[in-house]
Amino acid sequence: MKNNYLVITGLVLAFFGLLLTQNQLEVTPVKPELKIIEQIEEQPMRLLFTGDLMLGRNVEKIMASRGNNYPFIRVSEFLKEFDLVITNFEGSIPIEHIPTESGEFKFSFRKEVLEILKENNIRVLLLGNNHTYDYGVDGYLNTVSNIYQQDLVPVGHPFNQSSDFAYKFKVKNQEIVLLSFNATVPVFPIESAMNTVRELDTADNIILTSIHWGNEYELTHSLLQEQLAHKLIEAGSDMIIGTHPHVIQDTGEYLDKKIFYSLGNFIFDQYFQDEVQEGYLLEVILNESLETKIHKIKSIYSQPYLAESPAI
């Protein structure tokens, strides 16, 4: 991991109060402290966003036979070049781990996977997706608790768009806000998400919004995705980063803000077509122009490698 930045305030364990409504379970945390990151060198901070990460089911079996670090071997050094790596954590760490069988879609992860992520410089886990609640509220709370115990950062909630689930940090005097929304629910409350963006928006901060959305395996974005992206940008988002379709989708721009409709898969156990074994690693450089670079990856049996690297 690069040493260009120093975390000044430590992570704070959040305690959760529960409120059951008619439609969904809302989880309201005590807000963690704002993280302050001090720039030590002059170059701007570099973030890296990955697509969907799933370390259960057949990936867990492969790791058991080939080693825990098997999925990361060919990208590990690349991940360590960045100041902050952010991934879509598509699963749950339930109190009792029961391995997910092939063909099942309720993803259970071992808590030890968090140590592996940390060793590979993946520090921020996006939880605004359709699998974080696979084991209900207890599974969600246990997931968040284990994430904090590893000094990692959870962002977002599968049903709640509150700003309490945002992650904010500062680089010198520049505030960065990360949001993670799940729009795969039957009716996504876009106004609630927009209100959160408006609440957090200031004249000089940067809001990076990740959203779980779209139609699986579609190579182009839908009209609904475009409409949601535009609304979130109008509310104050400076960039939209999409996950969920399991394939790379096209990119766009609105009001001079970039939209990455889907980064595709990062690590998954889908092998039935080439497109589900490809993805983008999105580099975001925190300079005045919010520069981005796309690093394409391909994967062989849940082991990604940079596309320009030889396939071996």
TrEMBL record:
<comment type="similarity">
    <text>Belongs to the CapA family.</text>
</comment>
<protein>
    <recommendedName>
        <fullName>Capsule synthesis protein CapA domain-containing protein</fullName>
    </recommendedName>
</protein>
<dbReference type="InterPro" id="IPR052169">
    <property type="entry name" value="CW_Biosynth-Accessory"/>
</dbReference>
<feature type="domain" description="Capsule synthesis protein CapA">
    <location>
        <begin position="46"/>
        <end position="270"/>
    </location>
</feature>
<dbReference type="InterPro" id="IPR029052">
    <property type="entry name" value="Metallo-depent_PP-like"/>
</dbReference>
<dbReference type="Pfam" id="PF09587">
    <property type="entry name" value="PGA_cap"/>
</dbReference>
<dbReference type="InterPro" id="IPR019079">
    <property type="entry name" value="Capsule_synth_CapA"/>
</dbReference>
